[in-house]
Amino acid sequence: MGKNSMFNGKVAWITGASSGIGEALVYEFIERGAFVIASSKDPEGLERVRIACGERKGNVKCIPFDLSYTSAISAIVDSQMKETGSIDYLVNIGGISQRARIDETPLWLDRKIFEINYFGTIALTKAVLPYMVKQKSGYILATSSISGRFGFPLRSAYSASKQALHGFFETLYLENKKYNIMSSVIIPGRVRTAISLHALDSEGKEHGKLDDGQAGGITPQKAALMIINGIRRKKHEILVGKGELAMLHIRRFLPWLFFSIADKIKST
Question: How far apart are alpha carbons 230 and 224 in whole angstroms?
Answer without folding.
Answer: 10
